[in-house]
Amino acid sequence: MRLGVLDVGSNTVHLLVVDAHPGARPLPAHSHKAELRLAQLLDDSGAIGPEGVDLLISTIKSALEAAEDKGCEDVLPFATSAVREATNADEVLTRVRDETGVDLRVLSGEEEARLTFLAVRRWFGWSAGKLLVLDIGGGSLEIAYGIDEEPDAAVSLPLGAGRLTAAWLPGDPPDPQDVKALRRHARAQIARTVGEFSRFGNPDHVVATSKTFKQLARLAGAARSTEGLYVQRELKRKSLEDWVPRLASMTEAERSELPGVSEGRAGQLLAGALVAEGAMDLFGIEALEVCPWALREGVILRRLDHMSESQSHELRTPDGGDRPA
Asked: Quick one: which of 133, 159, 80, 150 has its CA closest to 293?
């Protein structure tokens, strides 16, 4: 079947269309996205303003039209930290439902971490052993650890690249004192979680997802996205430490000229780099691998798992025996 997953994130509204069925990997068929930067549209009270809600609704309508055009049988809509933490979240969700017919499922931070972990586990398989997964979004940082498909520990921190840029780095280029203050803030937040994960022992494989890590890896010399999903892409802490001061000295326009950095994400790349550097340092990570699958794929895989369970149940009689052939 052809499924669409509609991700209302802190940076973008992204419709990913895939061809999928239980037991097979989802094959991407179409991508439709618009950068709204909801995390940066919150007013002083923490609410998404009327213009932001109007823009969100029109963008969702456009995504639904694209899903219909591409023949999606179903669309799985969800929202993450920007909507989750907006003080007028209920009002926003009601307007979206009334004006588009979409009932957005708001994921908790822990759900984000768990679904992303599932996607990473399926991508690398059981041979990867104990996984530590990092995901920097526009509104939050998710961290998860485990050896199975369900992580043993999963947390979400308010350290998204968009959120931090809006709150801590108003200058262009940013004031060095603001950069230092954000560095201290991010590391203090991350340090509080290290003990929760260290009790499980060292991971066998450290993985990162998200646009931020992909761009940082590209700056450090990783392969271009045009070279395909299956090329291994790595980010070393030493390379990241070399890049952070360089990014801090650049304007947004200068960052947008760097290889692999999109114009829409250039402004928040420094904040993302500070979070990534802090996480790698505090968790003692010398190098990590970038995974092409993340939250959207995790949502699709979970749906396929539920479909498979339903099909298996239908092949059983009420008393638990097999149906006759």
From this structure: 133
* Each residue's pLDDT tens digit, 93-107: 999 999 999 999 999
Euclidean distance between CA atoms 271 and 187, whole angstroms: 12
Strands of the sheet containing 153-157, edge to edge, are 153-157, 141-146, 131-136, 205-209, 287-290, 234-236
Q: Percent of the chain at pLDDT above 90?
A: 83
Can you tell me whether residue 205 is helix, strand or coil? strand
Per-residue pLDDT, 229: 87
> What per-residue confidence (pLDDT) applies to 86?
94
What is the residue-wise DSSP string for 232-249?
Answer: --EEEHHHHHHHHHHHHT
What is the gyration radius of the CA atoms in the chain, in angstroms? 20
3-state secondary structure of 48: strand
Write the burial class of residue 57 (CB in 10 Å: 0-12 exposed, 13-18 middle, 19+ buried): middle
Q: What is the pTM of this model?
A: 0.92
Q: Where on the phi/psi map is residue 12: left (φ > 0), alpha (ψ -120 to 50), or beta?
A: beta
Q: Tell me whether the omega of the peptide bond preceding residue 173 falls within 30 degrees of 0, making it cis.
A: yes
